[in-house]
Amino acid sequence: MTKRETLLEINNLRAYAGKAGESRSQLVNGVNFRIDKGEIVALVGESGCGKSVTALSILGLNAASIEYENDSEIRFHEENLLQLSDRKLRKLRGNDISMIFQDPMFSLNPLKKIGKQMTEALLQHKAADVRTARQDAEKMIERVGITDPKRQLDNYPYQLSGGMRQRVMIAMALLCKPELLIADEPTTALDVTIQAQILEIMKDLQQELDVSILLITHDLGVVAEMADRVVVMYSGQVVEEADVYALFEQPLHPYTNGLLTSVPKLEGASDERISAIRGTVPSPQELPKGCNFYERCTHRSDRCKEEEPVLANHGGRNVACWHPVVEGANDVERTAIRN
Amino acid sequence: MMLNEPLLEINGLKKYYPKKDGFFQGKKSWIKAVDGMDLTIGKGETLGLVGESGCGKSTTGRMIVGLEDPTEGTVSFQGNNLSQVDKRELGKQMQMIFQDPFSSLNPRMKVSDVIAEPLRLHKVGSRIEQQKRVDELLERVGLRSEHGRRFPAEFSGGQRQRIGIARAIALSPSLIVCDEPVSALDVSIQAQVLNLLKDLQKELGVSYLFIAHGIQAVKYISDRIAVMYLGKIVEVATKEELFSRPQHPYTESLLSAVPRPDPKLRGRDRIILKGDLPSPENPPSGCRFHTRCPKVMDVCKQVEPALQVTREGTYAACHLVSEAEMKQPQEA
Ligand SMILES: Nc1ncnc2c1ncn2[C@@H]1O[C@H](COP(=O)(O)OP(=O)(O)OP(=O)(O)O)[C@@H](O)[C@H]1O
Ligand SMILES: Nc1ncnc2c1ncn2[C@@H]1O[C@H](COP(=O)(O)OP(=O)(O)OP(=O)(O)O)[C@@H](O)[C@H]1O
Ligand code: SF4
Ligand code: SF4
Ligand SMILES: [Mg+2]
Ligand SMILES: [Mg+2]
What we know:
The structure holds two protein chains of two kinds. Chain A is α/β, with parallel strands linked by helices. Chain A contains twelve helices and 13 strands. Chain A has helices spanning 51-58, 86-92, 114-126, 130-143, 149-153, 162-174, 192-209, 220-226, 244-249, 254-262, 302-306, 334-338, and strands at 6-17, 25-36, 40-44, 66-68, 73-76, 79-80, 97-100, 180-184, 212-216, 229-234, 237-243, 312-314, 317-319. In chain A, strands 7-8-9-3-10-11-13-12 form an eight-stranded mixed beta sheet, sandwiched between helices. In chain A, strands 1, 2, 4, 5 and 6 form a five-stranded antiparallel beta sheet that branches. In chain A, helix 3 (114-126) packs across helix 4, helix 4 crosses helix 6 (162-174) and helix 6 runs parallel beside helix 7 (192-209). Chain A is globular and about 65 Å long. Chain A starts with 5 loop residues before the first strand and ends with a helix. By secondary structure, chain B is an alpha/beta fold. Chain B has eleven helices and twelve strands. In chain B, the strands form two sheets. Chain B has an eight-stranded mixed beta sheet, with helices on both faces. Chain B has a four-stranded antiparallel beta sheet with strand order 2-1-4-5. Classes of the chains: A alpha/beta, B alpha/beta. The interface between A and B is large, with 47 and 46 residues. The complex binds adenosine-5'-triphosphate (2 copies), iron/sulfur cluster (2 copies) and magnesium ion (2 copies).
């Protein structure tokens, strides 16, 4: 594969709820990853692991009560987005980087007609006249599979079905041809036949516009259908990062491995038990000293309890684990062996 | 079919809700949430019920446990028509588990009281025996007896669902309607809860109606699966049949739309449906799927296909299926 140009780079992102010095909880704990030009990167992990906080930090949209470590960096075109002024961030949003939010109510203004919202965005960033803006909006809305675009532009968001609204959000997000689209669970609330439609549209548009996508999801099926590269998070940290084919072929982190075996298979017999991951995610207030996954891990050793693993190269792949999974030894319980 | 003795039978079941501002040309108009359903659930069997949002799955579930009365049709349980059975007695035999573990438990009740509630309601055992049973149940669903002293808010989603399950099995019912019991949970926790439900079934011989739109989970847990579309059943088959040889075009596209957790399967032939799900307020004429069906024929727009046997134990409602059956040329 040819090396692509890096578009965005997150370096050592640490985010806290609450002020320094006070009792604050760490929501994101040293996240590193990059997104290349034209690439789809999937960010996966269980509820509460910090996916949305990470994504929102790119656009400076986290709650004001969330603070970042001073040396945290989000590099985009030679600038650190975490240090950017509000004015510059506003210019960036919707233009260079746009976002589809987990909560659709964030994305669309309920009081404005769809067409008005779209033309306003175009006029703000792309300085066209009203007529061309309207035409561009119409084209885009047709492109996402909405029939009768002229009429739909005159509708308010509440007049659309869930699937249509999601399509309008995609159209809005791609309207100004951004370099990066952040899509936070863009299809989670949708039915599976509508989800398939929308993912297909996203993929087509991504290729057409050569936009990079940060796709946040907890659906491993969606990851496998869409992503080039996958970043797996657990408890505020990146635990594994890999090419999508490599990851599904052989996950290295016991958590990733557990996630993959937790999904019941569609093909073949399905009478055997699913191998679930035991236990639950620790809360951000009570993270253990060593590995955050220790309590649930079947590969753990005493070292894991004491020393926190860091993301490191393991045979050309990145994983944060003292005992990465190797083929054929997936269910060895190390503690049992060592004790 | 390997269907055991039937435990529950549904015949011609309908539920119409009045539309809010529902007068159309002076006539009251209706949301046809469930519009004529026939189903059987066997003893110890799990019947999966799948279909898209708003197709009537929860309404069906609520009518089965008697939380709602049908507009038309009957539900009979162990041979007795529900409308003639004492509702209290019914509560002993049938329970329900809900999708949202966050709102289905009373936040002001301690977990032990939540679980003991059905025991108290039905006056089963002494106070001490009830407490013992609660401890047993907590343990059985993978919690500890000291968890009983806490409140639901102190538990994670998966743990709350376990509490809901403990309450549901407290009276050893013969049928549990599980309405999207794992949809709100993370994958790793989903697997835990699915395994628990399966183990409990082996142990207690309870039947499940398992409602979900997550098709993987339905496949894992079900013996047979019924597929719904806009208030109607379009196909019923054993899970092996349904996944290997789907008969109805809707089932086919539903299965094809499921994103598969294997990147090597990308680029496979998929059926991507066009258009939106029609509203149950105003379902399409003829076959309700005709506005989205890739195989639509002229007849489909006018004539509604009936649910009929295609093979032993497999039912489908599609003109193509009846045609193949009768080997008649297509009528234009
Ligand atoms: N404004 C905030 N103040 C305090 N804590 C917060 C805030 N926003 C998020 N959190 C906490 O930060 C952690 C990470 O949250 P985040 O929303 O990033 O999770 P997520 O991975 O997106 O989960 P989900 O899959 O449920 O969307 C959670 O424990 C959450 O409760
Ligand atoms: N109490 C009610 N009053 C009016 N309409 C209702 C009522 N309950 C359900 N409906 C309508 O009936 C239809 C079927 O709803 P139901 O909740 O049974 O669907 P479902 O298949 O469970 O959907 P979901 O997957 O979203 O849970 C929907 O159009 C819904 O809006
Ligand atoms: S570091 Fe140890 S406990 Fe953590 S995931 Fe790896 S093996 Fe498991
Ligand atoms: S009856 Fe016609 S429209 Fe309906 S599913 Fe069959 S082929 Fe499609
Ligand atoms: Mg989130
Ligand atoms: Mg429902």
